[in-house]
Amino acid sequence: MVSMGRRRFGTDFQLMFRILKGLLFLGFVSVMTVLFVVCGLTISDLFVSILAFLPTGWALLLIGQASRGLMKSMGLWESIKELARAYEYVMGLVIFMPLAVLSWFPFVSEFQTRLLFNQAFSRGLQISMILAGRKDRTPTNITSTPI
After folding, report:
1. I need a surface site. Which of 59, 78, 94, 139 has the fewest CB within 10 A?
2. Whole-number pLDDT of residue 15
3. List of E strands, the chain
4. Does the keyword Transport apply (predicted)?
């Protein structure tokens, strides 16, 4: 709907386009409110329905892409491209958002270091001293013998 409004109103009717987006948002919020209050929808129900509809929408997208000529003749090709772009954004968020959140915690960095240098840890090597560039505090008695 937003892509159709962008094409139809464009730069000539910016106010109309913003009103359309506002009405779409208010409609979405009102439908969600009715579902939560009247129908007793819970957050877990919402999560389950999202998980159920993601593969279905992806399958419909693939079918639409496979029948590209038919979709172009019906005038639906631009909508399919917009929907595919939205799926790409959502999948990027779903995949990379947990990684971004986990990267903020310090224990993840320690865990990653432990995984990367597991063999060195098992031999008793202290990676933190190597990474920090510090020398070992215990003096070693290396005697140099002249040749």
Report:
1. 139
2. 76
3. none
4. no
- The tokens for 56 are 């279905």
Q: What is the pLDDT of residues 21-49, one digit of tens each?
A: 889 899 999 999 999 999 888 989 988 88
| Per-domain residue ranges of the chain | 9-105
The DSSP-derived string for 64-92 is: HHHTHHHHHHHT-HHHHHHHHHHHHHHHH
- The Cβ of residue 64 has, within 10 Å, a number of other Cβ atoms equal to 19
Say how many C-beta atoms besides its own lie within 10 A of residue 81's C-beta.
15
Contacts of 121 (CB under 8 A, 6+ apart): 114, 127
Q: Which residue would you say has higher pLDDT here, 43 or 142? A: 43
For helices 77-102 and 43-66, what crossing angle results, to 10°?
A: 130
Check: CB of residue 86 under 8 Å from CB of residue 10: no
Q: What is the pTM of this model?
A: 0.48
Task: Give the distance from CA 61 to its chain's centroid.
Answer: 19
Of all residues in the chain, the percent with pLDDT exceeding 90 is 20
